[in-house]
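@channel sequence for tomorrow's demo:
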Amino acid sequence: MARAPKPVVFEEDEDLPVRANPDLVGHEAAAAVLEAAARSGRLPHAWLLAGPPGIGKATLAYRFGRWLLAGGADQPPTPGAPPLHLPPENPVFRRVAAGSHADLFALRPEAGSGVRALIKIEDVRRAIQKLALTPGEGAWRFVLVDHAETMRGEAANALLKTLEEPPPRAVLMLTTPAPDRLLPTIRSRCRRLDLAPLSEVETASVLARQRPEMPAADRVRLAAIAEGSPGQALALAEGEGLALQELVDGVLAGLATGDWRRWHAVADQVAAKRDGSAFVTFMALLRQAISGAVRQAARGGAAPGWLALRPLAEWSTLWDSLGRLAAETDVLSLDRKQAVLTALGWLTPPRR
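structure tokens (generated this afternoon):
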């Protein structure tokens, strides 16, 4: 009897929603700068898009890349269209979305044998080799280095050599939430564009397009929690973010009483998921709530009542300590329940 063929397992293409996104939300000014530079005939060969995680840096980079590869700089602007507009039915748009355009190369961090995902030296070298070739489909070649701060050692130095002696008709676009982690020599050879977080209304509009089935009230709440990052809002939507935010709100509101039975129940709930995703999200939301309250108080605004339990300087120290605790627990695979209890113990004011 013939054996049944093994099922084919396809890896999820995490980059597809970004490559295939036709929308431009919140970054029209930056897109206009890119378009004007391309139309001027003096397009810088390297760009650095900097800004907080999840606000659309890679989305803008792909938008510019496909517009440039489609010959947008040589065509008159479409009346009433947003900057860098290319219709989804355009063949270049479709090939970029499919990841099959011969002149666009994307480098993204990949997890290896180590703990952290990195952009590998082999991928950088392959992209550099392709840049040395004649464009296969048009007049330009385009390389996106997403999360460029994850390059290490040889990878960063290899890219630096190309930035110092760029091939003609080639554009490299780096994105990063942490530009200070790049080599100063790399930063100095790129024209920098800083992207700001979106407004809550803009973030909610992205959620409405990506998650139309979600209740409008939940989208508004997620937009407020995400602090201008649609990427973070979508991640929270997929990872029970609203439920975890309610836990954070309850914990902070109950700090004055120090109910340890409640703290154990919270720790059990946060540590229940074996993959650790709930723990990472809970700790991130907890630190975000603290930093937001401290900023609000420092500006003279209305702050939540629990903030008065400690001086602002102590909250800042706790914010740092919680960050280290979360990182060590995640990297070293420590007991997550105990880590949550430790965090809540630090936050609970001493009894007098």
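heads up for whoever presents: Residues 104 and 117 are 22 Å apart (CA to CA).
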